[in-house]
Every structure is written in structure tokens, then in C-alpha cells.
Amino acid sequence: MQGDKRLIVALDAPDMDRVACLVETIGDAVSYYKVGMELYYSEGSKVISYLRGLDKEIFLDLKLHDIPNTVARGLSSLTTLGASMLNVHASGGLRMMEAARRSVAEKAAELGIARPKLIAVTILTSIDETEWVNLRHDKNIAEYVVHLAQLAQCAGIDGVVASPQEAAAIRAACGDNFIIVTPGVRPQGAAVNDQSRIATPAGALKNGAHHLVVGRPITAATDPRSAALAILREMREKG
Predict the structure, then answer these.
(1) Where are the domains of the chain?
(2) Is the dihedral of CA 232, 234, 238, 239 positive or negative?
(3) pTM higher than 0.70 for the full model?
(4) Per-block average pLDDT, block size 10, for the chain (239 residues)?
(5) How would you classify residue 95: left for phi > 0, otherwise alpha for psi between -120 and 50, otherwise beta?
(6) Helix (H) or strand (E) holding 101
(7) What radius of gyration, in Å, describes the C-alpha atoms of the chain?
(8) How far is C-alpha 164 from the chain's CA centre?
(9) Cα(96)–Cα(2) distance, rounded to whole angstroms?
(10) Is 63 a catalytic residue?
(11) C-alpha angle 157/158/161, rounded to 5°?
(12) Cβ atoms of residues 102 and 110 within 8 Å
């Protein structure tokens, strides 16, 4: 069985032992994994090599945000690892995103490999209206997310990370081919944890998401494989 690539499981684990246990338990139910800061900073590129050795696709979620030259050089190095998708923060600006896009394309061409998708983080799904007011933005969250998505598209970025609640507006503004990756996905009855702008798997897909990132509802479950299969069933409820 080939896992549905619309589901990306977040490996928010501290070490390779935990990663191997989770991935082996989940088995062929999942074919796409997210490697974030905690895991990459503790284990480095060996976790990428491990997942690639199992023919898994990888979203390397390091959210680069710095001056254009620094981000470009960082992404050039990361492109060599063979992840399927990399990301930056859209709030780094148009020039930073353009430099990021060029760097990834040039390094992939130099290596003769498929170019990884490059997406931009809009507003973190942990940000709620109270926190947004504290940041003193003059637009509401949804308007600003769409603005950042359009800025990313203008820079030639493949898509964005955004909450399920903004997915429909992004789809309307940026079209069907613009990738939308949604964290903050919680199956029916699951704990919200530290997420604020959330939706169910079926709801996120109906709103226009291409990929759903799910972590603790699967990785902290008593039976992670069964939890993943249950979410896949919820995803099939779309339409």
C-alpha cells in the first residue's frame, strides 16, 4: 500500500530511536514526513538519509528567515539533502523569497536532481487574535495571510504554509496550482494543544489544502498506525 501523500506526519521527536519506532510502527500507511527544528537540530542530516532509505518523502521544516544572501546560502546547502519540500518565512520579504527560489533552483540544476518544492510560512497557527493584537498589525489575520501568499506567489514560490481557516481565501486569490500546506489539523475529538486556527482533515481539504500536517494526534497515539489510518478515512470524507 502506498500512503496518501496529502498526509504529512510531523516527526516532532527528540532522537532517532523514537523516529525509527514511529516510522516502523506506522509502516506503509504514511509516505510523507515532516522533519522540524527539534529533530533536525538534534540529529542532523542522518534523519533525512534514514527516511530517504525507506523511500519516504520529506518536508524539511526549518522556516528560514534572514537576509536574502544568508537564506540563499542556507537553502543551497539544504537542497543537497534530497528533501521533497523546504520552506522560508514569507515575512522575510519579496527579495528574500526571490533569492531563496533562485538558490534552490540553481543548486538542484547543478546536482542534476529534481528541484524540491519551496513554500513560505504565512502566520503560525499558534497565533490567535489576542496575540495578533499584541503584534500591532493593521490587517486581520486572514487578510494578512492572503497578502503574504500573494507576495510569495509573486516571488515564484511554489506555495505556502497557512492555517486551514485561510486555505479557501488563498485558493481563491492564488489559484489551484499554488500549494497550500496546512498544519493545525485535528481529527474529530482530538485535543487542540497549542494550536489556535484549526480544522478537521475533511474540513481542511474542502477549504483547498493540498497537504495536511498532523503531529501529536498520530505520534502521541497509543497506536500511531491506526490513528494515521483513521485520519486518512476522515480525509476521504471530502466531497
Answers:
(1) 7-235
(2) positive
(3) yes
(4) 85 93 97 97 96 98 98 98 98 98 98 98 88 86 95 98 92 96 75 57 90 94 96 79
(5) alpha
(6) helix 94-111
(7) 17
(8) 12
(9) 36
(10) yes
(11) 95
(12) no
Nearest to 7 by CA among 239, 206, 220, 233: 233
Q: Does the domain at residues 7-235 carry the CATH identifier 3.20.20.70?
A: yes
Widest pairwise Cα distance in the chain = 48
3-state secondary structure of 13: coil
78 three-class SS = helix
Q: What does the alpha-carbon distance between residue 29 and residue 27 come to, in Å, rounded to a whole number? A: 6
Catalytic residue among 56, 63, 206, 238: 63
Residue type for 144, please?
Y
Neighbouring-strand partners of residue 32: 57
Q: Residue 49: is it exposed, middle or buried by C-beta count within 10 angstroms (0-12/13-18/19+)?
A: exposed
